[in-house]
Amino acid sequence: MKRRYLVISELFLPTKGGTAVWFDEVYRRLGDRGTHILTARVPGSEAHDRDHANQVHRLRLYQSRWLRPSSLPIYSKLLFKGLWLGLRHRFDAIHAGRVLPEGWVGVHLARLLHLPLVIYAHGEEITTWRRSPRRLKAMAYAYRRADRVIANSDFTRARLLELGVEPTRIHIIHPGVDLERFHPGHETADLRQGLGLGTEQKLILSVGRLSRRKGFDQVIRALPVLLRDGLDVHYAIIGIGEDHDYLRTLALEQGVSERVHLLGHVEPGDLPRWYCAAALFAMPNREIDGDTEGFGMVFVEAAACGTPSLAGQAGGTGAAVLDGETGLRVDGGDSEAVTRALARLLGDEDLRQCLAEAGRIRAERELAWERVAERTAAL
Question: Can you give the pTM of this predicted structure?
Answer without folding.
Answer: 0.93
